[in-house]
Write a structure and sequence with these properties.
heterodimer; A: alpha+beta; Ubiquitin-like (UB roll); DNA polymerase, domain 1; 2 domains; five-stranded mixed sheet; 5 helices; globular; B: Uridine Diphospho-n-acetylenolpyruvylglucosamine Reductase, domain 2; 3 domains; 12 helices
């Protein structure tokens, strides 16, 4: 068996230290070792986007990264978005209000894709949003409500400034 | 699925990485952005016994103008996408990068990784071939430059030796009076393209075509250089008639598409012809405007 490697990772502001086998995928590490199951695993080959997380503020696929590669990095998962149990992140709030989800499987990945996107693109058009989420598959909604929710989020985040 | 077990090394310096390559050769698989390798490992299509992760080697991440534009092999695609030097000195590359998969993939995927992977459906090998890009391969014994034509050696194959790593890429400036265009067509933005090409058109002072490059993706076992079509353009007056003829020659004589799930070989030829006319027109518009 391959030797284990010690890693130290900051996830949602908290530090975690584990010994991991090199072949452990980052998505599985987050779900099984850190027990944050908000990050979902769909296709396991980088196509569906359900496992999208932020590493050092950038959206990446956690199913095509190794846990050992996250050593020394800062990770944000969907659990790190809301300020508290009562106060959702504005993007989460908009998804609630505009019915941006049905089964919710793809939602964490879409939210984590949109967080850095809306930081960089404050007033996106509908076409821009469709392109921004083109790497995230949803099998329920036909995307219309997801696009509506994203546009609503952009608006409320602008108004809050 | 999950990857099969492997040993893992993440050297901090290029020197250590080259030492590992010297020791392990082909057994030691270089891990760049991992956006193709790790999916292949998840499927167990690839089962390397030892991974040499290059992500901690800071000296392989750079974009600088030093005579020509130099990009470090481990530079992330999303970094190059936003870099003003790339936009100014390699506008064809700048135009092509947003077509590579999705932003999440480009945040990890590297310029060197995609080139070394030599996927015939990928954008960067096509751009590199059109621009006569040069590749710097290094081993513990020394380094050498490889021309784009010699670098791509068939399906998912490059011409580097087992002890070599791709460390940098040099993008020459385009010749004077040259227009460029990168166009591709995918079923959804970010999917593998059914057809696509990089086009360069260089004009003589009097406005006729001096030379051109048309390089296609996904219609052969590597970047497909349409030399017959380009020869047909030499000395011609740029315009619809010449572009249409070149598009026909390129799609009928210069390529042997395999066809795939989304597009038959005939349809790939058809799309390639349509896109050729568009790319040549766009390149010509740009050289006229400049």
């Amino acid at each position: 068996m391959a030797s284990k490697h010690p890693i130290s990772v900051t996830i949602n502001g908290k530090n975690f230290e584990h010994e991991v086998e090199p072949r452990l995928l980052l998505a599985d590490y987050i779900r099984h070792d850190v027990e944050l199951t908000g990050t979902h695993v769909g296709c396991e080959h980088g196509v569906c986007g359900a496992c999208t997380i932020l590493m050092d503020g950038k959206a990446v696929r956690s199913c095509i990264m190794l846990a050992v590669q996250a050593d020394g990095h800062e990770i944000t998962t969907v659990e790190g978005l809301a300020e508290s149990e009562e106060k959702l992140h504005p993007i989460q709030q908009a998804f609630w209000e505009a019915h941006g989800l049905q089964c919710g499987f793809c939602t964490p990945g879409i939210l984590m894709t949109l967080v850095p996107y809306l930081q960089e693109n404050k007033t996106p058009s509908e076409q821009d949003v469709r392109e921004a989420i083109s790497g995230n598959l949803c099998r329920c909604t036909g995307y219309q409500h997801i696009v509506d929710a994203t546009l609503l989020a952009a608006k409320t985040m602008q108004a809050a400034k | 699925m999950k990857p099969a077990p492997f040993e893992y090394h993440a050297p901090d310096t290029l020197e250590e990485a080259l030492e590992l390559k010297a020791q392990h050769g082909d057994e030691g698989k270089a891990l760049a952005g991992g956006q193709s390798l790790i999916p292949a490992m998840n499927f167990r299509v690839a089962q390397p016994t030892l991974l040499i992760d290059l992500n901690r080697i800071g000296e392989l991440r750079y974009i600088r103008k030093n005579g020509v534009l130099h990009i470090g092999a481990m530079t992330q695609q999303s970094h190059a996408e936003r870099d003003p030097l790339v936009a100014k000195h390699a506008p064809l590359l700048h135009e092509a990068i947003p077509n590579i998969a999705h932003p999440q993939i480009r945040n990890r995927g590297t310029i060197g990784g995609s080139l070394a992977h030599a996927d015939p459906a990928a954008e960067l090998p096509v751009v590199a071939t059109a621009l006569n890009t040069r590749f710097r391969a290094q081993s513990a014994k020394g380094d050498r430059w490889i021309e784009a034509k010699a670098f791509f050696a068939g399906l998912f194959t490059n011409s580097m030796q087992p002890d070599e790593l791709l460390v940098g890429i040099a993008f020459p400036e385009m010749a004077e009076r040259t227009g460029y265009a990168f166009v591709e067509l995918a079923r959804r933005h970010g999917d593998y393209a059914m057809a696509g090409l990089a086009a360069l058109v260089t004009l003589n002072e009097e406005g006729t075509i001096k030379e051109s490059r048309l390089v296609y993706l996904n219609v052969g076992d590597g970047p497909v250089d349409a030399v017959t079509a380009c020869a047909s353009l030499i000395g011609k007056k740029p315009g619809d008639a010449a572009f249409k003829e070149a598009a026909q020659i390129a799609s009928q004589k210069d390529m042997e598409p395999f066809g795939n799930l989304h597009a038959s070989a005939d349809y790939q030829r058809h799309l390639s012809a349509v896109l050729t006319e568009r790319a040549l027109a766009k390149a010509y518009e740009r050289v006229k405007a400049a």
